[in-house]
């Protein structure tokens, strides 16, 4: 539930009381597990990072080509908009001034990991400047999410990322 609230309202857009109301538990129960909201933020980013790493490994095993894997990632970004959400780590990065140093470090690790995996895909595609292309993919994905969410049009994400996939 905290993930959904972060993706729809931003991490600073909800309180423990809001979260407790959503879940149907006492506010003190959340405080028991997460003493400070920074602890909750760190847990969210760490869980997402671990989940995405597992997803990337799964994509490497189950999809034959880097283009198919990139298309799948583009589809994940597109689904955020379809669900009225935004990338959790992108949302947290937008609120960088209010997150703890530990969350900031985890966000950096998340985006570096994403770029590393994307670089591997572009290397497999024979891209001469794969690292730069991975950086541009992430930047385009996050930026297109903003526009797609603003216009409530998930297709914007697919349109923005298709040039990376067709290379």
What does this structure look like?
It is a single chain. The chain is mainly alpha-helical and 167 residues long. The protein has a single domain (49-165), classed as Tetracycline Repressor, domain 2 (Orthogonal Bundle), CATH 1.10.357. It has nine helices and no strands. The chain has helices spanning 2-9, 16-23, 27-33, 37-62, 66-82, 88-94, 101-124, 130-151, 155-165. Helix 5 packs antiparallel against helix 9 (155-165) and helix 8 runs antiparallel to helix 9 (155-165). The chain is elongated, with a radius of gyration of 17 Å. The protein starts with a helix and ends with a helix. The mean pLDDT is 94.
Structural class call reads mainly alpha
- Total domain modules: 1
Binned, the helix content reads over 70%
- The shape, in one word, is elongated
* Discrete helix count: 9
Are there runs of 5+ residues with pLDDT below 50, and where? none
The oligomerization state is: single chain
Overall average pLDDT? 94
The fraction of residues assigned to DSSP E strands is: under 5%
Order of helices and strands: HHHHHHHHH
CATH architecture: Orthogonal Bundle
